[in-house]
Each structure stands twice: as C-alpha cells, then as structure tokens.
Amino acid sequence: MILVIGGAGYIGSHLVKELVKTNEVVVLDNLSTGHRWAIDEKAVFVEGNLGNEKDLESVFTNHKIDAVMHFAANSLVGESVTDPLKYYQNNVAATLTLLQTMMKHHVKKFIFSSTAATYGIPSVDIITEDTATNPINPYGRSKLMIEQILADFASAYDMEYVVLRYFNAAGAYETAEIGECHDPETHLIPIILQHLLGERENISVFGSDYDTADGTCIRDYIHVTDLANAHISALQALLDGSKKTATYNLGNGLGYSVKEVIETCEKVTGKKANVVMADRRAGDPARLVASSDKIHAELGWKAQISLEKIIASAWNWHQNSAKVTN
Ligand code: UDP
C-alpha cells in the first residue's frame, strides 16, 4: 500500500490517478486546499493532518504502508514571506512528525515534493541538481530544510528517499475530470485561461524589464501527468532497491517567457487576451529552466508533453471545471 499525503491537491490528485492503475493507495489529506472530488475513487481516503500524531498513527496501524509520497504543503511564495510561521509549521514541523511516525512503523521509503524555489536566483541558464541551492523566501527554505533533514535521516537511520524538485507544474488530466483549482489562483496559465473564459477582466504581466529577450520572466512548464509519471519511476526505483537516495529536477528543459505563454494560450484557444503591463512581483527570478538529464539518465524518465498540449489540456479542464466543482 502506498500512502499519498496531499492526494486531494493539484499535483497529488494527478499522481493518484496514475498510481491506482498499478498500486493500492491510501490518501491522507486535510482538504485545506485540496478537493474531495479530485481523489480517485479507487483510493482509500482518510481525512486528517500530517502533523497530527493520532491521524498518522491510525493510518499506519490500519494499513501496511510500503512507501510514502508527500505532496501536502503550503506553496504561496508571497504568503510565506508575510506568514513564515505557517510555512515552518506546516511544511517543516508537520513533515518531521510524519518522518518520526514512519520510522516508528519501520517505513523507510519516502518521495518528497520539492521545488525550483530551493535554487533562489540561480547564476546559470540551465539549472542542474549541482547548481547551488540558495532559497530567497521561507517557502523555498522550508522545502530545502526537509531535503537536508532527509539526507541526515538517510545517514543516521537508513531512510531511503527521492527528492523531486518541480519547476512550473501546469495542465490537467487528459479526461478533464481533474485539473488546477486553487483559491486564490496565482499561477500564470490558469489566470490567462480564466481571463480568456471571461472570468477575469485582464492579465497583468509582472515585469517587462527583466534581462530576457522580451523583458518578461522565463519559466519551464511541465505537465502534471509528466510529473506524476516521474513520481512513479522514482517509487519503482525505491521499491526495487535500485535507488537509496536521489535528488532530481523535473522540468521540460525549455524556457518560455510570460509573453510567449500568453501568445500560446491565444493560439490554442483562438481568443485574444487583454494584457496589462504591471510591476515586478517580489522574489521572481528572471529565468528558471531545468536540466532533467539526471533523472533521464538514471531512471529513464523524460517530459513528453509540449507547452501547447499543456495549455490545451488546461483549457479543456477550465471549460469543464464548473461541472465538476459545483
Ligand atoms: N505571472 C504574471 N502574471 C500573473 C501570474 C504570473 O506575469 O498573473 C508571471 C510570474 O511573475 C512569473 C511567471 O508568470 O514570472 C510564472 O508565475 P507562476 O506564479 O505561474 O509560477 P512561479 O514561477 O512563480 O512558480
């Protein structure tokens, strides 16, 4: 049985949809930001908190857990700056309680959702796992702290783990049953598509004076199903013992500017966006593009889905989402 913490959230729910095809799955989620409707019906659902020892105890005593995949975290950079306590409490302290419970129950295999935010403002154009980590906000620091804790636990307690550093997750499940559904929504692609559906008046471009070809920020967008498949490869490597510890970037290896993303959304939807230039958003690096060569070489995983297809899947979801969420 695989325990997925945060399986009702955006990335966790897409992972669960793939994982239930080959594994028994139990989801623990407090539904604070995730959605009950997003959890695949083949998974067992337990409502509870990963920082609550009693909730964890009941999951670990009621199910024989072989590995844990941990997606449950707060992930808004701006909020982490104004409310760091929330981030260190939920992302660090609660995860420590989870790791403690795992060790008590002799469960040693762990997959952790980390982030490109651990790199801060990188000094290289293409980020590898060897690029220095230097997070510039409490969100990135909270994720890096768990990465460091995992390395120490591997040395001291034989913990086995794969850390996956996501770049910009986007897109939706192919059937449009689930997709990105945050409140508030802060991510670029859903904001553009909501605007093109008439749900927002315009799109603000946060900064057009960056040191990039068109002056807007460049990001590496990766489809959630590609992300989900990377997790399944990582899980397999832990379960068959071919990996004991590893850290991998997950991206497409291609950078697109904010303007290019808007243009691609216009092309996919056949609609014209009303774009407003705005000030830079605090803490945005000009360029974040991953090399995912390491996971390709070691586990054979590579992103398959292009930006156009990412946006097309998200567009299907946004057109369908009212039916699912109401
Ligand atoms: N962005 C923007 N307008 C928006 C939302 C985002 O210009 O309404 C920009 C943001 O500044 C960044 C890029 O789009 O350069 C991707 O932002 P997002 O929040 O989607 O992901 P992040 O890279 O912050 O994880």
From TrEMBL:
Entry annotated with the keyword Oxidoreductase: no
The entry's keywords: Carbohydrate metabolism, Galactose metabolism, Isomerase, NAD
Cofactor section: NAD(+)
An example molecular function term from Gene Ontology annotations: UDP-glucose 4-epimerase activity
Domain NAD-dependent epimerase/dehydratase: 2-251
Keyword tRNA processing among UniProt keywords: no
EC number: 5.1.3.2
Catalytic activities: UDP-alpha-D-glucose = UDP-alpha-D-galactose
Biological processes annotated in GO: galactose catabolic process via UDP-galactose, Leloir pathway
Pathway: Carbohydrate metabolism; galactose metabolism
InterPro entries per record: Epimerase_deHydtase, NAD(P)-bd_dom_sf, UDP_G4E
NCBIfam families recorded: galE (TIGR01179)
Family assignment from sequence similarity: Belongs to the NAD(P)-dependent epimerase/dehydratase family.
Quaternary structure and interacting proteins, as annotated: Homodimer.
The protein's name: UDP-glucose 4-epimerase
Organism name: Priestia megaterium (strain ATCC 14581 / DSM 32 / CCUG 1817 / JCM 2506 / NBRC 15308 / NCIMB 9376 / NCTC 10342 / NRRL B-14308 / VKM B-512 / Ford 19)
High-level lineage: Bacteria, Bacillati, Bacillota, Bacilli, Bacillales
